[in-house]
């Protein structure tokens, strides 16, 4: 989230409406290039999660018990989660400045499940997970005296997000998905290629400024993005160096 925030605070990029609202003067830097200029559309963050368990679901499901008032304390530290994610969700949100203080995080609205298809994918994924958890092969990884209904309600009771909770989420997988939805750790997508930066990661409309980090991702890599960001940084570093050497040779008649 830091890169789009800095671009907006500096007035280099961002929806003009949001910049005007915060009193940020729009800057014009460099020579115009033949690229699509930024418009009023908001920047879209892409949600990220730990594990790509299926290609249809998008939420979390407890597979063994955690601390709970109705479970013996001997199990309080023995547990885990199956964590899914939606690949390329249709629902989009937006990112905007809360104020002009660079130390304050920007405001991010995710609009989870704005598109009904995303919710249907979550429900389909949950049904797949239920089959796996209740299978014979998985039986050694769960406590036999805890029902699937109890697992669902236990999972939804955990403080995964700041959304209001509902009783008996196990009665509705749609409600379970809504109550347990979250984005985990690696926020990205605020400076997407083709919208904020071009294919060479240059900020659109600026000659000598590039953004080369996770904010340029359109889709989540599916796991911790550190290696992907390092690879991207090295690739662009080598490419920039090659371009400069080629330009130097041309200018010197080489």
UniProtKB/TrEMBL annotation:
<feature type="domain" description="Glucose-methanol-choline oxidoreductase C-terminal">
    <location>
        <begin position="89"/>
        <end position="233"/>
    </location>
</feature>
<feature type="compositionally biased region" description="Basic and acidic residues">
    <location>
        <begin position="31"/>
        <end position="53"/>
    </location>
</feature>
<dbReference type="InterPro" id="IPR051871">
    <property type="entry name" value="GMC_Oxidoreductase-Related"/>
</dbReference>
<dbReference type="InterPro" id="IPR036188">
    <property type="entry name" value="FAD/NAD-bd_sf"/>
</dbReference>
<feature type="region of interest" description="Disordered">
    <location>
        <begin position="23"/>
        <end position="53"/>
    </location>
</feature>
<dbReference type="GO" id="GO:0016614">
    <property type="term" value="F:oxidoreductase activity, acting on CH-OH group of donors"/>
</dbReference>
<dbReference type="InterPro" id="IPR007867">
    <property type="entry name" value="GMC_OxRtase_C"/>
</dbReference>
<protein>
    <recommendedName>
        <fullName>Glucose-methanol-choline oxidoreductase C-terminal domain-containing protein</fullName>
    </recommendedName>
</protein>
<dbReference type="Pfam" id="PF05199">
    <property type="entry name" value="GMC_oxred_C"/>
</dbReference>
